[in-house]
Sequence to fold (93 residues):
Amino acid sequence: MTELSVASRRRIEAFRKRIGGLTCDPMPEAELSALPGRRRQGLANSKIEGIELTAEERAFLELLDEERVPHELRTELATAIALQAEDRTAAAD
Fold:
């Protein structure tokens, strides 16, 4: 896992526990093997648009891969972690 702050590590581990409690079929092997290429393409597209992922965001994506979270749940979980980040930003203002 990328170098993370203690708070980021805690958030990622909280999501790991949340994912562990979900009832779903793991991502099929064929989709899992396609992830690295899709990730490279997504990161390249983001870079073109001037979007750089944080270490926490990268660790979150790695977590989704490790836990073989299916695509239909990835969006829901990504939204949840993004909303947490917005809440932290708003609280800091």
User: Anything to note?
Assistant: The CA atoms of residues 35 and 45 lie 15 Å apart. The chain has a mean pLDDT of 86. The two ends are 29 Å apart (CA to CA).
